[in-house]
Here is the input.
Amino acid sequence: MRRLETLCRERGERLTRQRLAVVRQLLTAGRALSAYELLERLRPEDESATAASVYRTLDFLIELGVAHRLESQRSFVLCSHPQTPHRVQFLICRRCGEVVEAEDARLAAATERLGDRLGFALDRRIVELTGLCGRCREGGAGAP
Ligand SMILES: [Zn+2]
Ligand SMILES: [Zn+2]
Here is the structure.
């Protein structure tokens, strides 16, 4: 939260009610949320929220570097280390939805080399891996 306030101040951007509310919802959810899930959660407090305004807010937060879009899930998470450059990997649990943001330098370098080798100028270097988190694996097949 404080980080968000600082970033907004530095950029001369306003920390609007909806921007704050979206960050708060993502914080309390503790997992990735889709734009529509966010909209549902915002509506009770803010009748003016629309899908378009939620998308605009998310774009703003992504541009600011405090949130990420998970392409494979069509959802959004808060960044767990907004102060560092981003060559990150996401590990996404397909059962409970937990998202872990990892930063493996070797994997990042390998991704870069792969782009070079195949002649791709990469503009998005985020790797998304899906599977079962440790907790869900321990819970076994019968766990929710
Ligand atoms: Zn991040
Ligand atoms: Zn899980």
